[in-house]
Amino acid sequence: MIHSIKGKSVLITGAGRGIGKRLAMGFAEAGAKVGLLARSQAELDLAKLEIEQAGGAAIKLRADVRDLEAMAHAVERMRAAFNGLDILIAAAGMQGPIGPFLSTRPHAWHETLETNLMGVANACRVTLPPMIEKRSGKIILIAGGGSAYSRPYFTAYAASKTAVVRFGECLADEVRDSNVQVNIIAPGGAYTTMTDEILHAGEERAGRKEIEDAENVRITGGVAPEKQTQLAIFLASENSNHISGKLIHVNDDWKRFEQDSMRPELFTLRRVQKI
Question: Does residue 247 sit in helix, strand or coil?
Answer without folding.
Answer: strand
